[in-house]
C-alpha cells in the first residue's frame, strides 16, 4: 500500500511539473522587465510563439534568421539531430524549414559543401550539401522550428569557374529531400 501511495504522489508531482511548463518554442531572448508600478498585461497568443524561426506564408510571423555563407569543407558531416522538412531557393538564397528538440540553449545552423559539382543523371551538375545543426548540448524537449537561410553564391562561382558560363542550373542535394533546383 505504501508503494502505491508513494507512486501516486510521484506521478502527480511529475504531471503537475509537466503541466506547468509550456514546451512550445523558446523564450524571448531579451524580455523587457516591467517598470515599478506599471501594469503588466496578460500574455496573448502572440507572446507564446517561437522566436527563432522565419515565416512561411501559412505560419505565424517569426524573426528572420540572418543569411549565412555556405561552408566549404573537405568532409562535411552532420552533428546534432534535426529534421529537414523542406527546402526552397529564393533568388540566390537557400531557405530551409527544420524541426528539432531543445528550448534551453541557443541553436546554430550551418550548411556544408565539399566544393565539388558532381555530374547528375540528367547532365545537370549536383552539389551535395550537409545541414549541420549544433544544439549546444540542449537536452530540453520542446519542439522547435526554424528557417535557416544560406547564401548559394559559392556554388554559382564554382559552376562559372568550371564551365566558363555566368549562368546555369545546379541541383542541390540534401539528405532526405528531393533535389532542389538552383537557377542563377
TrEMBL record:
This is Putative lipoprotein. The lineage of its organism: Bacteria, Pseudomonadati, Myxococcota, Myxococcia, Myxococcales. It comes from Myxococcus fulvus (strain ATCC BAA-855 / HW-1). Residues 1-21 form the signal peptide. It comes from the Bacteria. Keywords: Lipoprotein, Signal. Residues 22-57 are annotated as: Disordered. PROSITE patterns: PROKAR_LIPOPROTEIN.
Amino acid at each position: 500500500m505504501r508503494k502505491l501511495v508513494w507512486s501516486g504522489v510521484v506521478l502527480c508531482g511529475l504531471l503537475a511539473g509537466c503541466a506547468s511548463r509550456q514546451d512550445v518554442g523558446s523564450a524571448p531572448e531579451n524580455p523587457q522587465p516591467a517598470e515599478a508600478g506599471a501594469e503588466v498585461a496578460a500574455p496573448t497568443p502572440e507572446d507564446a510563439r517561437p522566436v527563432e524561426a522565419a515565416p512561411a506564408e501559412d505560419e505565424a510571423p517569426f524573426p528572420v534568421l540572418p543569411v549565412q555563407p555556405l561552408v566549404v569543407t573537405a568532409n562535411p558531416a552532420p552533428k546534432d539531430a534535426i529534421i529537414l522538412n523542406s527546402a526552397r531557393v529564393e533568388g540566390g538564397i537557400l531557405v530551409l524549414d527544420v524541426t528539432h528538440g531543445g528550448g534551453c540553449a541557443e541553436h546554430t545552423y550551418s550548411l556544408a559543401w565539399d566544393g565539388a559539382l558532381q555530374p547528375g543523371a540528367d547532365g545537370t551538375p549536383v552539389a551535395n550539401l550537409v545541414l549541420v545543426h549544433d544544439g549546444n548540448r540542449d537536452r530540453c524537449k520542446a519542439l522547435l522550428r526554424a528557417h535557416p537561410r544560406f547564401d548559394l553564391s559559392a556554388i554559382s562561382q564554382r559552376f562559372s569557374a568550371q564551365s566558363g558560363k555566368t549562368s546555369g542550373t545546379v541541383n542541390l542535394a540534401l539528405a532526405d529531400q528531393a533535389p532542389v533546383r538552383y537557377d542563377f
